[in-house]
């Protein structure tokens, strides 16, 4: 485990001062509950979430001087959400390093768990290496989402609503439930489930459900 983490960090020119901190990043609470000497990543996730929100907000502010508050908020929400952070984590294969209990193997592909891993890793880099190294890490992983000029500012929920109102005056509805420490939303229209999304809040879950619906429409998976 130690060598795997070190090899992973070497990809980003990170030489850990406190390797235990990075071991904590890759320790799920199911493993920690069975092995009391190991700390799990929840506290790091909390800090990482705040750091990502701040750094992305700052970059949006500097990159788009004429952007309105509302547009900036929408842009940030499209970048800092469970779905996009999970995609980054999957690309980095962070779940390959995760220590979990034998009875919880199914969570390895859980989007929220993977998003949490990226947040926890971000916090560990900041605490162990400082803000400059965190910026370098973000340059290789998430800042490109801000710079991408093709990012659409319009809220995904509004995009989907405009799509259906091209042929009907009906509105889409969202059914949100709390399930296993995460909100799950279903986008419903014409008695059909168009999209499903998860998030840390009802708003994020609904947004991810709309994103899922738009992606399915592009792939012609739904009419």
Automatic annotation (TrEMBL):
SUPFAM superfamilies per the UniProt record, alphabetical: dsRNA-binding domain-like, RNase III domain-like
Pfam families found in the cross-reference section: dsrm, Ribonucleas_3_3
Domain RNase III: 5-130
Gene3D superfamilies: 3.30.160.20, Ribonuclease III domain (1.10.1520.10)
One MF annotation (Gene Ontology) recorded for this entry: double-stranded RNA binding
Residue ranges constituting the DRBM domain according to the UniProt record: 155-219
Active-site residues, record numbering mapped to chain: 49, 119
Residues reported in the UniProt entry to bind Mg(2+): 45, 116, 119
Family: Belongs to the ribonuclease III family.
Protein name: Ribonuclease 3
Organism: Mesomycoplasma neurolyticum
């Amino acid at each position: 485990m130690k060598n795997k983490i070190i090899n992973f960090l070497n990809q980003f020119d990170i030489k850990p001062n406190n390797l235990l901190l990075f071991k904590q990043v890759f320790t799920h609470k199911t493993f920690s509950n069975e092995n009391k000497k190991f700390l799990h990543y929840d506290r790091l996730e909390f800090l990482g979430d705040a750091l990502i929100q701040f750094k992305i907000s700052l970059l949006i502010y500097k990159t788009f001087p004429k952007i309105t508050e509302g547009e900036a908020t929408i842009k940030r929400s499209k970048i800092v959400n469970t779905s996009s952070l999970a995609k980054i984590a999957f690309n980095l294969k962070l779940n390959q390093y995760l220590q979990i209990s034998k009875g919880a193997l199914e969570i390895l592909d859980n989007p929220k768990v993977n998003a949490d891993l990226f947040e926890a890793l971000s916090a560990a880099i900041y605490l162990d290496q400082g803000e400059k190294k965190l910026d370098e890490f973000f340059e290789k992983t998430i800042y490109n989402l801000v710079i991408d000029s093709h990012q659409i500012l319009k809220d995904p929920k509004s995009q989907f609503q405009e799509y259906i109102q091209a042929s009907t005056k009906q509105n889409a509805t969202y059914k949100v439930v709390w399930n296993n420490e995460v909100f799950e939303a279903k986008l419903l229209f014409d008695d059909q489930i168009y999209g499903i999304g998860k998030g840390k809040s009802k708003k994020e879950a609904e947004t991810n459900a709309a994103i899922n619906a738009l992606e399915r429409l592009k792939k012609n998976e739904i009419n």
